[in-house]
């Protein structure tokens, strides 16, 4: 088969080194600068991963480490991780908030350790800055104590509860009555991370097919037939796979419907948009600063990028479509939220930056949802794994999720 031949060529031609991360023509269907599409003839592969975000890349990498044949289908024409994976705070979370033994808690704590190790080994820019979760009201002190207790249940034992004076010593610009310090929280260059994972996939012989959207299929047989649309030419191709992983993030529901997954197994779908504003001038803090969690998210917090630039967000806006517009008029509400812990924020110093949309399985005023990862035990289809609601801490937990899903496959 064409895929098997391509993979063998990759093993012969591409040395397993960091310098080998260029996209060799031998590892693509129809090689071209920045683009590879499926050939018009039927192809067969052991594992098809749909979706080239950070989690899809991690799944493909883990499958390849098990010596599986893998093709990753990505709808974008030239790049991986163009949606949720590249529109977030780029925070490496510690695993504090999530219910004990939930997938979010387990994947975050395991994934954090794996991610720091991966970044160190592969030269991915990252910083272990630490984070302060602040209480600005005396009624929130008990919530800080409960947060520390929950973190311990999740296996996070490095938190320190601080009083007002201790916080002021660490971050003089902050105004609060107490805080919890999480020293293992950090930041990562998500784009460099995904580029590295993409390189890993290609070096190990995986094939990434850009501009390839799954628009239908037949999953009823021992092998699965995927109808793949080349978004550039409009041509359709049949890809036959022994197993399929749906890692399409915001489009996971659409992909499941297109593949004929039983509707009773598909969870509810919600979108929560989060906007970010950047701060003109120097950052007031050297650490990340978070308020206590709110409905749908973790509140308007202060994060830093790899250059030390401060940005605030995200807010929570429940939306019906994938609209990434940032309304400049939101700045006033952001300023109000930020001044609860940073009262010296200059008026008019916030600039619209970017927006991201979180795929969620719960709606407004509901308890936070967990990652939803289904195999045949739920939907009844052998060889299929569906993932829904992979929002934060999906970036942190990506490598752990990759291993988890590869074992399910």
TrEMBL record:
Lineage summary: Eukaryota, Viridiplantae, Chlorophyta, core chlorophytes, Ulvophyceae
Protein name, UniProt field: L-2-hydroxyglutarate dehydrogenase, mitochondrial
Family membership: Belongs to the L2HGDH family.
Occurrences of domain FAD dependent oxidoreductase (ranges): 47-408
The EC number(s) this enzyme carries: 1.1.99.2
Coiled-coil parts of chain: none
Named cofactor requirement(s): FAD
Sorted UniProt keywords: FAD, Flavoprotein, Oxidoreductase
Catalytic activity: (S)-2-hydroxyglutarate + A = 2-oxoglutarate + AH2
Extent of the signal sequence: none
Flavoprotein listed as a keyword: yes
InterPro entries with a match to the protein in the record: FAD-dep_OxRdtase, FAD/NAD-bd_sf
